[in-house]
Amino acid sequence: MKHKGLFLIIFSMAILVLSACGSSNSAQGASDTDTSSEKWEEIQEAGEIVVGTSGTLIAASYYPDESENELTGYDVEVIKEVANRLDLEVSFEIMGIDSMLPAVNSGRIDVAVNDIEVTDKRKEKFSFSDSYKYSYTTMVVRKDDYSGINSLEDLDGKMHGGGATTIFSQIAEHYGAETKTYGNAPNEAYLRDVHTGRTDVIVNDYYLSKFGVAAFPDFDIMLHPELKLHPTEQAVVMPKEADTLQMKMNEVLAEMREDGTLTELATDFYGEDASKRPEGDFIEIEGLDL
Predict the structure, then answer these.
(1) Which of 120, 185, 201, 289 fits a 20 to 30 Å CA distance from 67?
(2) How many CA atoms are closer than 13 Å to the CA of 205, on its beta-carbon side?
(3) CA gap 209, 58 in Å, rounded
């Protein structure tokens, strides 16, 4: 009888332990689910998605003709359409590119759109939607002598105009350039400095650079005709665990790709279909962990 009583006690304790483990696992699973859907539920409840963008980046996010209340651009119109199809209003927070990822991380904004490149290092800290733009990296230089740059190695000792934390500045600095930073300045400030010689080069996105150079025909600048490098993808940046929000956005972006909306918007703003991968041979960046 004593042995039987002891067995029942041990058996009961085992059941309690197993139940506790099951509850713990279930709670962990519920916690994971809650975390992944929390951002989406928060946005749904508010009926609004708060988007960080610069408002100074032609033709991704800008105010045409110096208008203060008509924000537009490829990235802006893409996120407006995404929000519309998700039955959400959009509120834009204007900020510099160096502030956007910290603002997503802190919860000040829900997402960021500003021609932001998807990289492996950024994926460690943030989630991204499927890419809505594909491009590559080029350089804006002076027309008369290419600013003395005929190879990536020629960036050594040059003055580069860019944002403090951008991938493009990392590339320029990797090859020995010094970066002059601007904060949330308009394209004209960057381009004028190359024209006047205050800086030598702007390493940046092909489509944005092409549009920017065309917007200021009086400047002595051009796209470097030979240096095409580092293919890129751009997407919506959101918090790391925002799985449900990511899924919802990807569903809508897939619809927009299928019905031609992405192609139409990209062609309207860039004159080319930037929603598709560019063709050609590109120089790869070696020895830089992006």
Answers:
(1) 201
(2) 24
(3) 9
pLDDT, tens digit (0-9, with 9 covering 90-100), for 172-229:
999 999 999 988 888 899 999 999 999 999 999 999 999 899 999 999 999 999 999 9
Is the Cβ–Cβ distance between 165 and 122 less than 8 Å? no
d(CA 88, CA 226): 44
Hey, what are 168's tokens? 């493009």
Cβ-Cβ contacts under 8 Å for 75 (sequence gap 6 or more):
53, 57, 60, 61, 113, 114, 115, 132, 133, 234
Q: What is the pLDDT of residues 71-124, one digit of tens each?
A: 999 999 999 999 999 999 999 999 998 899 999 999 999 999 999 999 999 999
Q: Which residues pair with 117 in a beta bridge?
A: 234
Residue 253, classed as helix, strand or coil, is helix
How many residues does this entry show for the chain?
290
Give the whole-angstrom CA distance, residue 149 versus residue 139. 9
Burial class (CB in 10 A: 0-12, 13-18, 19+), 183: middle
CA distance 154 to 214: 25
Which DSSP string do the residues of 98-154 spell out, in sequence order? HHHHHHHHHTSSSEE-SSPBP-HHHHTTEEEPPPSEEEEEEEEEETTTGGG-SSGGG
